[in-house]
Amino acid sequence: MINDNYLKLSESYLFADIAKRVQTFKAENPKADVISLGIGDVTQPLAPAVIEALHKATDEMAIASTFRGYGPERGYDFLREAIVEHDFRSRGIDIEADEVFVSDGAKSDTGNFQELLSQDVRIALTDPVYPVYLDANIMAGREIVKLPCTQENDFVPELPSEHVDVVYLCYPNNPTGTTLTKEQLRNWVDYANRENALIFYDAAYEAYIQSKDVPHSIYEIPGAKQCTVEFHSYSKTAGFTGIRCGYTVVPKALRVPLNRLWNRRQSTKFNGTSYLAQRAAEAIYTPEGKTQIKATIAYYMRNARLMRESLTNIGFKVYGGIDAPYLWLGTPNGMSSWEFFDWMLQSAHVVCTPGVGFGSQGENFVRLTAFGTRENTEKAIHRINSKL
Ligand code: MLT
Questions:
Q1: Whose CA is nearest to atom 5 of ligand 1?
Q2: Ligand 1 centroid – CA 39 distance (Å)
Q3: Which domains does the chain have, with CATH numbers?
Q4: Is 115 helix (H, G, I), strand (E, B) or coil?
Q5: Angle at 217 between CA 44 and CA 359, to 5 degrees
Q6: Entry pTM
Q7: pLDDT, tens digit, 9 for 90 and up, residues 124-155
């Protein structure tokens, strides 16, 4: 009775697996002060503007005349208008509010969007990759083409040598923390338009971009609206991992009617993101909200710089961490990802993510996040240095 495809999945989801190992270690070593630089979960509180919006929205819920029940299926106009204005028009990109679908975050949408495709489409994924894209397509029983991202190609995937129908790209990249320039992204858009393929573009870490020539949205590239669905999340942009809100852009100019079908899918299977979460998201587009979330991102990026510089000085090969909150670290002395994970946990009491959990090309790497507190980040660097 079981969908056989589920039996092809690895035993557990990567981060659930890691959490279990860490729990076991903590149970056996109750005095150990374990620092998590593993899962990309944020540590800094929500921006004051967001808290204020949440209080206000809560008060509205207490009064019959301002109470809200089910919301509009694509999300409230106030949020979709703010998104269009601040994330797109201000960058010269013409996206309309009815092309924006508010969601509970990019994980659900990047996982669910493939439901609109037929079972026999060929999917291309980078290796290493955020496991959601892979697992969701294994669940659907699809054939996957892997695009290796290695030190040799600077973690920039080459265009597939065979036809693929869909390619998932995530930039700034999770897990390697690397980015694509406009020119590199243009190659992908041209490929997709030439091959009649679709790009599913995960821009969850866009707010961490510091370099001028790195695009914040794939729609900065001409022709992208014909071939790309773009996913956004407030989880890392504004610390919404616990609030849950994001959005997906499904252009009406796509060669296939995905806007209509995604609306049909979402209105059937999803009842929307809470009014509170959407008001909270709207607040990050106010002048105070913008300044406050920028300050938090700068805090995390300082962690990234500290880790990058210190770990490089100790002799590690470190990638990423310049336009992304992730660092991709070569393991020392040819240790496997899991061996180094165990060493980090047992000797330094620091949790990282084994690179091989993101794909076979991630072997001999681990990922560190910049989302820790400053104190823990400094402590982690010090412990790694002194235990080596
Ligand atoms: C990660 O650590 O890769 C992310 O936090 C996972 C996610 O955003 O779902």
A1: 40
A2: 6
A3: 4-46+288-387 (3.90.1150.10), 49-285 (3.40.640.10)
A4: helix
A5: 70
A6: 0.96
A7: 999 999 999 999 999 999 999 999 999 999 99
